Amino acid sequence: MCGINGILHLQSQKKVDERILIKMRDSLEHRGPDDKGIFIDNNIGFGHRRLSILDVSSAGHQPFLSNDGRYVMTYNGEIYNYKEFYPELKSNGFDIETTSDTEVLMKLFELHGLKMLHRLNGMFAFAIWDKLEKKLIVARDRMGVKPLYYSFYNEIFYFASEQKALFTAGVPLKMAQEGLEEYIFNRFVAGENTLYQNVKKVLPGHVMTLHEGGKVTTEKWWDLKKEIQNQPKIKNPVEWFRETFDDSIKMRMISDVPVGVLLSGGLDSSSVLASLHHQNYKDIETFNIGFKEKEHNESHLAKMMAEKFDYGFHTMQLENQNLYDQLLSATYFQDEPIMHLSEPHLLALSKMAKPSVKVLLSGEGADELMGGYVRYKALKYPSLLNSIATIGALDLFNKQPRYDKLTRYAQISKKSELVIFNGSNIYPKDIAEIYGINALPKNEYRKQIYKDAKSLYPENLRRQALYFDQHTYLCSLLDRNDRCTMGASIECREPFLDPRLIIGLGSLDDKWLFAGKKWKFILKKAMQERLPNEILQFKKVGLSAPWGDYITKSTAFKDELESFSKSELFQMPYFEHINIQKLVVNLQKGDNRMTPYIMPLFMMHIWMKSYAAKF
């Protein structure tokens, strides 16, 4: 697990500036405090910061060179099944000299080229320079667990694990108008674009190849839609799920350093813990964030689960000045305004875990694979939404935030937009009324994913929403997890995102997901003998926090809220029609329905002040 970066001058006669490469590399020190390295060969340069997980000796040092000197690699991630390739590599004449997955990845590439990607079970982003053919290959894992950003600027190609390394190299930090629009309407920028001009992401499941002459090709090496269509029928889904999930956990326990669990007390993380206990893993430490507000708190359940399995339990609460400080830190590590609003909590949790472990298992992905969000339920009977919209217009039951949100969502009439805006907190009509912004974002990537979802699951809005979220919302969650845990120099692993589970669950009938009151039926069925009823039946909370109260009642945020009301943000043409003073006053009076309108703007204000000003 590491931070990677690199520079390729597209004009071969130009040499890489070592000082810039080192500055890029060391801006990612938090991603890899254990070791550092650089490689420069005229117009190509790689930088690497290492967090040692597998083979903590110097044998795992990077950038990594092939034995014949033809290839150089900088790699971030873990290949969980790397030992499976030992016999094949040895029979093809390769000596295995380390116990690291880095060496296996390099030798598989030497043997098979990019055809080896389909055989990897893991999370990864890597770059390989081919000295013979003078080409650079950059690749990313199936679901985008590991980040990889790039920029073409002044005839130079820069890439890095985080955007801050690109800005450190001199790529200008400029907001993109389309990115800004997506942030407001959709909470985050999906696909290859980012909030910034001249900064893009390598898409999950994609490979880019850059030839020295400047030719660039992009290839999609993993297509979830095709994989689901080609999946053989699963005969006993519950048994299949339980066995595959246990094997996924087992694979993700491969480590030469201690592994712990992010334990919320909800169904997903408790299932991870139950699988570890079932497989007789001992001395596991668990880490939990608690809230003093009862409706947000699951820590009593997390404690019960840890004690039930005789595992260590650590919990904390985050509020006042500590919350404010962690918010600033999380914004720095995130490189963009935070949007899930749980980033400060996850960062603080990771810092608490750091003295005990170097790896954390997370329950991320279960909701998007098996229908765990309440917001999916609105798509079960889309025709009913028209009735709700009518009732909502009469203002009969929209005083509570949840009902208020549903009545606002029900104003959307197009099925495509019901899916595309399902993960939003505020909707186009709200944005027009409150912000004075009427033009919808282009959302080209989201529209393409919706098109794929519709062709895979025709006339099934719930399944379309799951597939859509797997390519959009889940990517933002994985980015959040990566940034917050790596901000504390910890690696995060997601057992639910084993490719066998992703594809298999996508091929199952609706009944395995949407049966029962709270859905995720197959997970509950598979875990019913391992988990107590308190976990199986508990109302989903998730890592949510009462931000409206935090920013209006906490002394740590008092000055910041005053500053926010006068922020230069509202002098930008895009936001000039927003009456921010009115929104803040209404929130201060206790109208929590203002929270979803204020928070994206408040977090952008924090980002402008604490992050953008640094570059």
Automatic annotation (TrEMBL):
The active site is at C2. It catalyses: L-aspartate + L-glutamine + ATP + H2O = L-asparagine + L-glutamate + AMP + diphosphate + H(+). It comes from Flavobacterium omnivorum. Coiled coil: none annotated. Pfam families: Asn_synthase (PF00733), GATase_6 (PF13522). ATP binds at L262, I289, S362, G363. This is asparagine synthase (glutamine-hydrolyzing). Belongs to the asparagine synthetase family. Pathway: Amino-acid biosynthesis; L-asparagine biosynthesis; L-asparagine from L-aspartate (L-Gln route): step 1/1. The record marks E364 as: Important for beta-aspartyl-AMP intermediate formation. Residues 2-213 form the Glutamine amidotransferase type-2 domain. One of its GO terms (biological process) is asparagine biosynthetic process. The lineage of its organism: Bacteria, Pseudomonadati, Bacteroidota, Flavobacteriia, Flavobacteriales.
